[in-house]
Amino acid sequence: KAGVTQTPRYLIKTRGQQVTLSCSPISGHRSVSWYQQTPGQGLQFLFEYFSETQRNKGNFPGRFSGRQFSNSRSEMNVSTLELGDSALYLCASSSPGSNSYEQYFGPGTRLTVT
Amino acid sequence: AQKITQTQPGMFVQEKEAVTLDCTYDTSDPSYGLFWYKQPSSGEMIFLIYQGSYDQQNATEGRYSLNFQKARKSANLVISASQLGDSAMYFCAMREDNTNAGKSTFGDGTTLTVKP
Predict the structure, then answer these.
(1) Taking CB atoms and an 8 Å limit, are B104 and A45 in contact across chains?
(2) pLDDT at position A58, please?
């Protein structure tokens, strides 16, 4: 079974631009969550999508948005990029059929904003 | 609000010895799950072990075991027979009840270095 894939793996953007990151979950997983990881703030939850609906949301400004498609693939978008948005963005999928709901993470997209 | 505390920024262990990574948590929800993840330098988070709040026995997965002390709100990870490949960052995480299955709170992590 293929794991969680994220594209692109690396990205360099300029302040003020926008960016879209993509995540394909493990086949059969309907929940996709996004996390931001930075040295200063650690791992912070962005949002979770389940069956194309946002089910949970973290404390991030409205510049951060996401969506999920009918095939469970998810995208997150960051508009008007700031230097502080430089981070590793991790996507995780999980299956409601799992007893523990453990999340399986992708390799991440490393975003650098200059 | 839920909170995870990992008080050991860095730990060293000799190869083949056991090591315990500490984790304490805070929640008011009676139903929750506790997880440990390993993050090598490549960046990918690898699920290691899970403990449910209602589980009576401590979870074990191969060389990993979770020392769950509910009254003390601690969920320490024990790695037995350490290997060089165990060198990585380790994160403790918690989710509150199944409706928040996709939303986990993570600790700051512990960097484990295994010495040959």
Answers:
(1) yes
(2) 92
The CA distance from A114 to A45, in Å, is 24
Residue of B95, B98, B108 for testing the chain A interface, max A β-carbons within 10 Å: B95
How many whole angstroms separate alpha carbon A11 and alpha carbon B108? Answer: 25
pLDDT at A16: 97
A87, β-bridge pairs? A111
What is the least distance, in Å, from the CA of A12 to any CA of chain B? 17
Pick the closest to residue A103 from A45, A20, A64 (CA basis). Answer: A45
CA distances from A89 to A9, A56, A75, A97, B12 (A): 10, 17, 11, 26, 28
- Number of residues that this document lists for chain A: 114
Round to whole Å and give the CA distance between B35 and A21: 26
In 3D, which of A1, A19, A44 has the Cα closest to residue A109? A19
Q: Are the Cβ atoms of B104 and A103 closer than 8 angstroms?
A: yes
Over 80: is that where the pLDDT of B100 sits? no
Q: Hey, are the CB atoms on A105 and B102 less than 8 Å from each other? A: no
For residue A47, give both structure tokens: 């949002």
On chain A, the residues whose CB falls within 8 A of the CB of B105 are 45
Q: CB–CB of A45 and B101 under 8 A? A: no
**The pLDDT value given to residue A110:** 96
Burial class (CB in 10 A: 0-12, 13-18, 19+), B102: buried
Contacts of B31 in chain A (CB under 8 A): none
